[in-house]
Design a protein that fits this description.
single chain, mainly alpha, 0% strand
Length: 129
């Protein structure tokens, strides 16, 4: 059997002002969604009697994606960014929570704006790029 090989490329880009704003908006939305999911999982951990009434399981990536859709309804700024970006962030958060259980190393931390490495993932759907 052949193994699936994932390739990644690293590019150096020099965006103009409009592209720069697009990148900042997407990075900010990614950080915001991740931190909201982290905050909700912390709330459920601290207050289980209130947290269980909310239909959110931080260890299930599909539940995280479902909750991120609710976030889009509450916050209008998330409507300006790609939906796939937000879904991918929720999926990454769910996988990170599962990894903390399996590995036993620490817990998921909030994303900081001051961190020098800011990133987000874009899926190529219908050759948009």
């Amino acid at each position: 059997m052949e193994k699936e090989v994932n390739k990644s490329y690293k590019y150096r880009i020099y965006p103009d002002f409009k592209q720069e704003q697009y990148l900042f908006r997407n990075i900010g939305a990614t950080r915001f969604v991740f931190n909201q999911l982290k905050g909700m999982s912390d709330f459920q951990y601290k207050y289980p009697c209130y947290g269980n009434s909310i239909d959110f399981n931080p260890f299930n990536k599909y539940s995280c994606i479902k909750y991120s859709k609710k976030l889009k309804d509450c916050f209008d700024t998330l409507n300006d960014v790609d939906a796939t970006n937000i879904q991918n962030t929720a999926k990454i958060f769910g996988q990170a929570m599962l990894n903390t259980i399996k590995s036993g190393f620490g817990f998921v931390k909030f994303k900081s704006r001051k961190n020098t490495v800011q990133s987000f993932s874009i899926r190529n759907i219908n050759n948009r790029w």
